[in-house]
Amino acid sequence: MSKKEIIVSNVSKKHDNPIAELVQVACQFDSNITLESENRRINAKSIMGIMAFNPSKGMTVNIITEGSDEEEALLAMEQFLVCE
């Protein structure tokens, strides 16, 4: 299992459809990807989960990945959410 805390940047400024694009990034990996913030925990591969989670600028999020490609998944999710 890999875990990292990040601060979300302005994803809606960099991406045309950030919710759908974030799910697409997550679905590229075999690993389970979970996003946590405050008392909410969602599956990053679920579009409904991401819509409810609504990652927005300034939000502190824990990215948790578990599986065969967890390091790559963690890096991809981090790059998307901090707009690197």
UniProtKB/TrEMBL annotation:
Matches recorded under SUPFAM superfamilies: HPr-like (SSF55594)
Gene3D superfamilies hit by this protein: HPr-like
All residue ranges annotated as the HPr domain in the record: 1-84
Parts of the chain that traverse the membrane: none
Pfam families per the UniProt record, alphabetical: PTS-HPr (PF00381)
PROSITE patterns: PTS_HPR_DOM
Protein name per Swiss-Prot or TrEMBL: HPr family phosphocarrier protein
Organism encoding this protein: Roseburia zhanii
Species lineage: Bacteria, Bacillati, Bacillota, Clostridia, Lachnospirales
